[in-house]
Design a protein that fits this description.
The chain is an alpha+beta fold. It contains 3 helices and 2 strands; from the N terminus they run E-E-H-H-H. It has one domain. The termini are far apart.
């Protein structure tokens, strides 16, 4: 199930979409507890939004770490970075 509710707050259009998910009872209980008992967020929706945003950022961070690790293992990348670093070694210090 999906429904859309548009809200205008301080000049910014915020679109809220109502979705229905099938979650385990324990997950529902945890969301309720996080909101009502632990005050993690003001609503159950906000708890879910915080959790999803955190998981999203963690996934992006992990992906970025993996890309940097792969780059560090790439001889061509390492050589190019050394060349750039050598070119910058003689640059004027900032601020002058």
């Amino acid at each position: 199930m999906t429904s859309v509710d548009g809200v205008h707050i301080m000049g910014v259009d915020m679109t809220r979409i109502k979705r229905t998910y099938n979650l385990e009872d324990v997950t529902i209980r945890h969301v309720r507890e996080l909101s009502a008992e632990y005050g993690v967020a003001q609503s159950q929706d906000a708890v879910v939004e915080l959790a999803v945003e955190r998981l999203y950022r963690e996934s992006l961070d992990r992906s970025e770490r993996e890309r940097w690790a792969a780059a560090a293992a790439d001889p061509a990348f390492v050589a190019e970075m050394r060349e750039i670093a050598a070119d910058l070694d003689g640059a004027d210090p900032w601020p002058a």
